[in-house]
Amino acid sequence: MSDNDDIPFNRDFPLAPGVVDEVVPGVRRVLCNNPSPFTFTGTVSYIVGKGNVAIIDPGPVDEAHTQALLDAVRGETVTHILVTHTHNDHSPGVARIKAATGATVYAEGQHRASRPAYVSETRATESGGDWNFRPDRILKDGDVVEGDGWRLEVIATPGHTANHIAFAWPERKLMFVGDHVMGWSTSIVAPPDGSMVDYMASLERLALRDEQLYFSGHGPEIPDAVRFVKFLIRHRKAREASILHRLAKGEADIPTIVRASYIGIDPRLMGAAGYSVLAHLEDLVARDVVATDGDPTIEGIYRLVAPLA
């Protein structure tokens, strides 16, 4: 959702699909041709190192993109395939890369929801989870993955998905952040796939780290990254405040809150905005700030527990 002007978004990303771009020494990126309102110009895959390399997020099932990645590493050995999270625009391309290279696949785990589905939920989120994904090696927070001239630390960043991780390169003060932080737009947090409580905690954690250059799953790199993360934290808190402001006028359903809070939004993103509002409402219900009858679901009617002071 890119309706707020308080975040210094950068939508200048001229990289063409299939082109190998060495953005900094030891980091190459290749764009997949899968543009959409959710993926911006497409999924960005990264190649780390030279000689013996890792590929981060091979992307969707897309033969042209897979071939571009394999061409980019011709004459080199792919030792690691690293996955930040298991959405269909990030991990399904793993199988073809693994078959061609024999590399070991590393990830936090299989796709899973951030919480059990409520019986009352009649609609699933449109998140597009890759439920068939199985890593060879399970990574946990603090693990180190290293190769020829590179060393990456695993940072647990749940929120966009339950199994989302980032890969920090502390010596280079850079990090591969998947979809947790993006320079062109805020990330979608859609329950039950995602969790706003987890997402905010993960942002707060990144804000305390030293890495200042982020490489995202979509869009351009993010310089001055810690400052950008703090913008995102403020934006989410402002979003919560706008939801509470609307509820102070009386109870409302989620489409009504979206219309009040997301002025000028791309109509194609209205559904995603609704799930993002739901993620905030789940948190507010858990904190007894907002109430609803039954479970907090996308169809629910929401009201303040007590008037705002």
TrEMBL record:
<dbReference type="InterPro" id="IPR050662">
    <property type="entry name" value="Sec-metab_biosynth-thioest"/>
</dbReference>
<feature type="domain" description="Metallo-beta-lactamase">
    <location>
        <begin position="41"/>
        <end position="218"/>
    </location>
</feature>
<protein>
    <submittedName>
        <fullName>Glyoxylase-like metal-dependent hydrolase (Beta-lactamase superfamily II)</fullName>
    </submittedName>
</protein>
<dbReference type="InterPro" id="IPR036388">
    <property type="entry name" value="WH-like_DNA-bd_sf"/>
</dbReference>
<keyword id="KW-0378">Hydrolase</keyword>
<dbReference type="Pfam" id="PF17778">
    <property type="entry name" value="WHD_BLACT"/>
</dbReference>
<dbReference type="InterPro" id="IPR041516">
    <property type="entry name" value="LACTB2_WH"/>
</dbReference>
<dbReference type="InterPro" id="IPR001279">
    <property type="entry name" value="Metallo-B-lactamas"/>
</dbReference>
<dbReference type="GO" id="GO:0016787">
    <property type="term" value="F:hydrolase activity"/>
</dbReference>
<dbReference type="InterPro" id="IPR036866">
    <property type="entry name" value="RibonucZ/Hydroxyglut_hydro"/>
</dbReference>
<dbReference type="Pfam" id="PF00753">
    <property type="entry name" value="Lactamase_B"/>
</dbReference>
